[in-house]
Design a protein that fits this description.
The structure is a single chain. The protein has 393 residues and is of the alpha+beta class. The protein has 3 domains: 138 residues, PAS domain (Beta-Lactamase, 2-Layer Sandwich), CATH 3.30.450; 72 residues, Helix Hairpins; 175 residues, Heat Shock Protein 90 (2-Layer Sandwich). Helix content is 44%, strand content 22%. β3 and β4 form a beta hairpin. The longest helix has 37 residues. The C terminus is likely disordered.
């Protein structure tokens, strides 16, 4: 609203300067001062309104539209010579009556596909001496959406942090009360270690997400060998997989490279593998497979396939959102933070790539990272297929 106030002040001030300069020049030429006829725009108003980024409308004393920016018409604020928003019209009449500048926020029925309404910050000011009124409206819809996302994020983080912190506090009290029972102390200490690890993972994921979600370029990109990244990610997940007797298998084409950050790629793959292990039954396997993609092998695809429970089709569009869980109870039981797939999405975006998912309930899931190849060509060594992707299904 402050920026809109400044904009309105600039417009009115600019128009005032135009009038003063015009009158001064006319006096010097000893010619009559030009008087703006009622219902006409002051000289130069159209030029000023044409460069404004906000929706701008000038009304005459009869509430007819004298001038409207293309943005005002695109949003449906103006049709023909009419101002369509009743709230704006009421504000304009009040301003015309007492000459005071007014500010407000309004909602207008949406005119964009899939958008129910548009939020505007508005400022209405008198213009000239013939009852004309200037209306400026700035679209706040995206700003409000971002604020809502930020509030939800803070609320979710607070909730996720509260759970392990509360559990640690309760377990500490329990251990204190069970000081004379070594077996109970050992059992509760193990639970404390579990909750502390969960808290550590959450904080680490928050730090990683904060670092990459700003869509900033990778600070020190370089060639990344896919084989090394895949094996490093598998090594980091082996302990968790072994606890469920899940076999982690690397396969596909060897010698592929991308241009990017090796640690970020390992982080993305680790999250995909961890996710596959968490939602797979015991005694199954997870396959990580790489291949050259695109008509000229200009991309690299890395797929992580499991034989797990699968993802409902209705949830597949949302699984990359922060803290979204298909089954919240099961996800917390597996120790997930709810940030893993969001991190994968942002890592892919930071590499000018994308991540997609194929899944069928009861048949497992396949997550695929598609990233630009180093030097525009993925294959740098003779292709050697080790394990076909179909083996995971």
């Amino acid at each position: 609203m402050a920026s809109l106030a400044a904009l309105a002040g600039f417009v009115v001030g600019a128009l005032a300067v135009m009038v003063v300069r015009q009158n001064h020049g006319q006096r010097r030429a000893m010619t009559p001062v030009h008087v703006v006829e009622p219902g006409a725009l002051p000289q130069g108003v159209a030029s000023v309104l044409a460069v404004l980024p906000s929706s701008a409308v000038v009304l005459d004393k009869e509430d007819r539209v004298l001038r409207a920016s293309s943005a005002a018409r695109a949003f449906g604020l103006v049709k023909g010579e009419r101002l369509m928003a009743a709230e704006l019209l009421a504000l304009a009449r009040k301003v015309r009556r007492d000459g005071e500048i007014r500010e407000s926020e309004i909602e207008v029925a949406g005119h964009k596909f899939g958008q129910e309404s548009t939020s505007f910050a508005v400022r209405v000011a008198p213009l000239g001496s013939h009852g004309q009124v200037l209306v400026l409206a700035e679209d706040q819809t995206e700003h409000r959406r971002v604020e809502a996302v930020r509030r939800d994020f803070v609320a979710n983080v607070s909730h996720e942090l509260k759970t392990p912190v509360g559990a640690l506090s309760l377990l500490a009290e329990t251990i204190q009360d069970a000081a004379d029972d070594p077996e109970a102390v050992t059992r509760f200490a193990g639970r404390m270690q579990h909750e502390a690890a969960r808290l550590t993972y959450l904080v680490q994921d928050l730090i990683t997400l904060s670092r990459i979600q700003g869509a900033e370029p990778i600070p020190t990109p370089g060639p990344v060998l896919i084989d090394d990244a895949v094996h490093e990610a598998i090594d980091r997940c082996n302990t968790t997989a072994a606890a469920k007797d899940i076999t982690l298998v690397a396969g596909g084409v060897e010698g592929l490279r991308i241009w990017g950050d090796d640690e970020l790629l390992v982080t993305a793959l680790r999250n995909l593998i961890d996710n596959a292990v968490a939602y797979s039954p015991e005694h199954t396997r997870v396959v990580v497979s790489a291949r050259a993609a695109g008509p000229n092998t200009e991309s690299v695809e890395i797929s992580v396939s499991d034989q797990g429970i699968g993802i409902p089709e209705s949830a597949q569009e949302r699984i990359f959102e922060r803290f979204f869980r298909v089954d919240a109870a099961r996800s917390r039981a597996t120790g997930g933070t709810g940030l893993g797939l969001a991190i994968v999405k942002h890592v892919a975006a930071s590499h000018n790539g994308a991540v997609t998912v194929w899944s069928k309930e009861g048949s497992g899931s396949t997550f695929t990272l598609r990233l630009p190849a180093f030097g525009g060509m993925a294959v740098t060594e003779p292709a050697t297929t080790t394990i076909p992707l179909e083996a995971a299904q």
